[in-house]
Design brief:
Helices cover about 25% and strands about 25% of the residues. Strand 6 (about 115-120), helix 4 (about 130-140) and strand 7 form a beta-alpha-beta unit. The chain has helices spanning about 10-30, 50-60, 75-80, 130-140, 160-165, 215-225, and strands spanning about 1-5, 10, 35-40, 65, 100-105, 115-120, 150-155, 175-180, 190, 195, 200-205, 235-245, 250-260. The protein starts with a strand and ends with a strand. It has 6 helices and 13 strands. Strands 1, 2, 3, 4, 11, 12 and 13 form a 7-stranded mixed beta sheet that branches. A 6-stranded mixed beta sheet has the order 5-6-7-8-10-9, covered by helices on one side. The radius of gyration is 17 Å and the shape is globular. The protein has one domain (about 1-260): Purple Acid Phosphatase, chain A, domain 2, CATH 3.60.21.10. By secondary structure, it is an alpha/beta fold.
Length: about 260
């Protein structure tokens, strides 16, 4: 059995601080073998830099996934092709800018590796290649290397997320939604052994509106005019799930929702 922690969207400095303090404790106390975290909002709430990615990896994250904000920081285009543990959604039509999936060895577990796939949705999101067809193709490729495969589906609509989870049921170990920054209470294991949840939640300041100070967002709703968003700072939490997976079959056997406070 292998235990994987999947951590929801890290937002700004408070999110990075929560991860830095809470993740090592979680790994030690709960016997976590592998950590996946979404870091697309880790740099000031928008995007990620190479320096921040390196910091997250040093904190104990094994693979960083992203989403539609991955390109917000220009220098990331130089960093992405050099870092196999930082993924962008694999269904972006532009290729050659870095990996959309990876097979990463598990430290301390001989001959065991985990496949991680990053995808983005298309409902209420920018138009991309079909995530369902992309997922099917990549899963077939990764299953020649490992039975344990986890998908971060960065998408808006819960229906799209559940549809992908059911489409891949029995072919992957887990499908976990990110992007909305609001943790859902629908964690489950499907009939074929695939664990899923519509959204892992957010690692960042929860006295906020999805990680940002409320006032500029409320002002934008009231006026329709653009306002500069700022990362909130109070009530930092780390959210996500723990999943137990049979390393031989790749089937999930347990899933537990997490929301840990600093």
């Amino acid at each position: 059995m292998i235990r994987v922690a999947c951590i929801g969207d890290i937002v700004g400095r408070p999110g990075r601080q929560a991860l830095r303090e809470l993740l090592p404790r979680l790994v030690a106390e709960r016997g976590v073998d592998f950590v996946i975290a979404n870091g697309e909002n880790a740099a000031g709430g928008f995007g990620i830099t190479g320096e921040i990615a390196d910091d997250l990896l040093q904190c104990g994250v094994d693979v960083i996934t992203t989403g539609n904000h991955v390109w917000d920081r220009k220098d990331i285009e130089r960093y992405l092709p050099q870092q196999t543990r930082l993924l962008h959604p694999a269904n972006y039509p532009v290729k050659g800018l870095g990996p959309g999936c990876a097979v990463i060895p598990v430290a301390g577990r001989e001959k065991l590796a985990i496949g991680v796939i990053n995808l983005a949705g298309r409902v209420f999101m920018p138009p991309l290649d079909c995530p369902f067809q992309s997922a099917s193709r990549i899963v077939d490729e990764l299953r020649t290397e490992t039975a344990v495969i986890i998908v971060d589906f960065h998408a808006e609509a819960t229906s799209e997320k559940l549809a992908l989870a059911r489409y891949l049921d029995g072919r992957v170990s887990g499908v976990f939604g990110t992007h909305t920054h609001v943790q859902t209470a629908d964690e489950r294991i499907l009939a074929g052994g695939t664990a899923c949840i519509c959204d892992l939640g957010m690692t960042g300041a929860h006295d906020s509106i999805i990680g940002m100070k409320p006032e500029p967002i409320i002002a934008k709703f009231l006026t329709g005019l653009p306002h500069r968003y700022e990362v909130a700072t109070r009530d930092a939490r780390m959210q996500g799930v723990l999943v137990d997976i049979d390393e031989t079959s790749g089937r999930a056997t347990a899933i537990e929702r997490l929301s840990l406070k600093l």
